[in-house]
Amino acid sequence: METVIIVIHLMIVIALVGAVLIQKSEGGALGIGGGGGFMSSRGTANVLTRTTGFLAAGFFATSLLLGVLASSHRGERPSSILDKAPAAAGAPATPGAAPAPAPGAGQGGVLDQLMQQQQQRGPAAPANPQ
Q1: How far, in Å, are 5, 13, 75, 76, 79 from residue 66 at the CA level?
Q2: Is the pTM of this model over 0.90?
Q3: CA-to-CA distance for 83 and 93, rounded, in angstroms?
Q4: DSSP letter at 109?
Q5: I want to staple 105 with a disulfide (CB 3.0 to 4.6 A). Which of 6, 24, 101, 118 is the partner?
Q6: How far apart are CA 26 and CA 62, in angstroms?
Q7: What is the helix, strand, coil percentage profile of the chain, to 5?
Q8: Cα-Cα-Cα-Cα dihedral sign, residues 68, 72, 78, 84
Q9: What SS3 state is found at 101?
Q10: Are 19 and 55 in contact (CB under 8 A)?
């Protein structure tokens, strides 16, 4: 349900940006705009203004609906993509084996682990031996 509303929300956003960019510039803040062109008639401006209004109302409605749906899941424990991260490359594949310690548990950060791996491999061979 949420995915469908998010897709509709994104389509409304793209259409809203397009409708705003098509409209004729009347502010003249940069000294551009105005003039003629295929969007110079009064009727087209009314259609674009109404379209922008309807798209803005749709954007507002889908934003509120997504907010209500997000607040309805507050009773659940929030999930994180880090909780679902795959096991490290050096982790044992057998289910009964002890899991690898967390990165912050005495082993340092990611850079420290990379340095340890590099030291275990030994010095790298030169790319072009002479």
Answers
A1: 7, 14, 16, 17, 17
A2: no
A3: 18
A4: -
A5: 101
A6: 30
A7: 50, 0, 50
A8: negative
A9: coil
A10: yes
Report yes or no: 46 and 19 within 8 Å, Cβ to Cβ: no
Tokens of residue 97, six digits: 């084996």
Structure tokens at 113: 């682990």
Residue 128, Cβ density class (10 Å: 0-12 exposed, 13-18 middle, ≥19 buried): exposed
Residues 6+ apart with CB under 8 A from 6: 66
